[in-house]
């Protein structure tokens, strides 16, 4: 925990806001790791949110930048509030569910921190690039965990018996294999869209194949079905664009 906090502080202070964005997006893909703090399971994103919230507050105060809320933000705040209300008055174990509601609100706070830091198209492009980088690294980590289990019979990052008694499914640094499959499938779609609609860069195609392999190895049926359907939709959209029927498609990220 001490090392993690030191890394978060260093990255946050190194180059604002990109260091903080790396920390937020990176730690959001590491929920499987935790340390016990007064009986609470403190995860990497909890440390990151606490430290970056303080840094963001100081930055907004010194630079006189405020956070303008829109309609979606108010809906998200209402969702967080309802979690606390239902936990306090509708739960059979209010103390336990209120703690979960608090931990959930810390995760939701990441959204507002990113909204605070991403203020122009340049920062948005770089934040999107960070998201893609984290996605492909998570895919590679999960694939390596699966390969290590198959070759050396290790158990790091894999769930044995998730679907069948003799089938091991990787979860990487996420909670479980279904989430890993959904996460990597989303990354695969993003890479494919960039490859088809922007420039036919070989790197995007390789990353698409890596993320797709990770999604397949997760054995998550819902993630695989969604991947097939959405990839088909992306190819269909690209075909319409090439025939001039889908209008002009522009991706601002590269």
Mean pLDDT: 89
Shape descriptor: globular
Beta-strand content: under 5%
Element order: H for helix, E for strand? HHEEHHHHEEHHH
The end-to-end distance, rounded to whole angstroms, is 35 Å
Helix percentage: 55-70%
How are the secondary structure elements laid out?
Blueprint: H1 2-14, H2 18-27, E1 35-37, E2 40-42, H3 44-63, H4 71-89, H5 94-117, H6 121-152, E3 158-160, E4 168-170, H7 177-197, H8 202-217, H9 221-242
Antiparallel strand pairs: 1-2, 3-4
General description of the model:
The structure is a single chain. This protein is mainly alpha-helical and 254 residues long. Helices cover 70% and strands 5% of the residues. The protein is built from nine helices and four strands. The chain has helices at 2-14, 18-27, 44-63, 71-89, 94-117, 121-152, 177-197, 202-217, 221-242; strands spanning 35-37, 40-42, 158-160, 168-170. The strands form two sheets. It has a two-stranded antiparallel ribbon with strand order 1-2. A two-stranded antiparallel sheet has the order 3-4. A hairpin with a 7-residue loop joins strand 3 (158-160) and strand 4. The longest helix has 32 residues, at 121-152. The radius of gyration is 20 Å and the shape is globular.
